[in-house]
Every structure is written in structure tokens, then in C-alpha cells.
């Protein structure tokens, strides 16, 4: 009996030590962004006239949030009439998310963010969720999910649609 109890204590102690080592390794491997760094990149949306849909944001000075997160999209309704040689990702095709929280492990997310714009009496409201992670101090990947609703002369809605993105800081 005493020997079996001693073996159980040794096994339990060993398993506890292994679990602690794994937990400490996971914390040590967490990637945190460079504070104050400016990131730019692009989404997985197909290029239009050779121009890729941009993504950009800045890491706050304390590293706990992303400021000025914006991305280019024509939404789930689409767009057309692009002029050759002119970047179509300007104006209302750039959507802004005010702030995205960053966890201690380098993961970031926000949901329910809203962006509004009005053209010719039609207001488009986009509801946005962003999630991702830093893969290095100067590299990040993630996804953007959005739905849209148009109100005005006519009403329509679409989504959700999801695009991937990658961004880096130089």
C-alpha cells in the first residue's frame, strides 16, 4: 500500500510539473506586437486593376489595442466602373474600425463595429468583426467578417462575408 501511494504521488508530481512547463512555454511563446508600430498589408480579396485591398493599423503605445484599423472592400454588393490605372480603394471603399483590443498573448479581436456611408440618398451600414494574431513582433494575420445593409430608396442586406488579411511593419 505504501509503495502504491508513493508511486501515485510521483506520477502526480511529474504530471503537474509537465503541465506547468507547458503552460510557461505557451506564455513565453506568446507574440506581442512592437508598441507604436504601423502595420500595412492587404486582404485576400482578388485585385482590381492590379490594386489589392489594403489593411492598415497602428499598435497603441501600451500595446493593448490597435488604433485606426481600416481595410479596403467593395462590400458584398460589389462595385464597378473602375478607371484603368487609378486605385479604386479610396473614399467609401475604405472602412474604418475605431479600436481593436489586443490580449496579452498577442491575439486581437473586435465584433459589432459599425461603419456608415451615404451615396445618392442610400446609406450603407457595415457591421464588422475583426480577429487575428501577431505572428511576430512585426507581422500579423487575421480575418475580417462583415455584413451590410442598405437603406434609402430601396432596402437590401447581404453577408456575412469573410476575407483574410496579413500585415507587417517595416
Radius of gyration: 23 Å
Instruction: Label the overall shape.
Output: elongated
Tally of individual domains: 2
What would the CATH topology of the largest domain be?
Lipocalin
Q: What distance separates the N and C termini?
A: 64 Å
Give the % helix: 10-25%
- What order do the strands of the largest sheet run in, or round the barrel if closed? 1-2-3-4-5-6-7-8
Mean pLDDT, rounded to whole units? 85
Q: Supply the number of helical segments.
A: 1
What is the CATH top level name of the largest domain?
Answer: Mainly Beta
| Content of β-strand | over 45%
The strand count comes to 8
Corresponding CATH architecture of the largest domain: Beta Barrel
Description of the molecule:
The chain has 170 residues and is an alpha+beta fold. The protein has two domains: 1-30; 38-168, Lipocalin. It is 16% helix and 49% strand. The protein is built from one helix and eight strands, in the order αββββββββ. It has one helix at 2-29; strands spanning 38-43, 54-59, 65-72, 94-102, 107-119, 122-136, 139-151, 156-168.
Attribute tags:
1 helix; 170 residues; elongated; Lipocalin; 2 domains; alpha+beta; 8-stranded antiparallel beta barrel
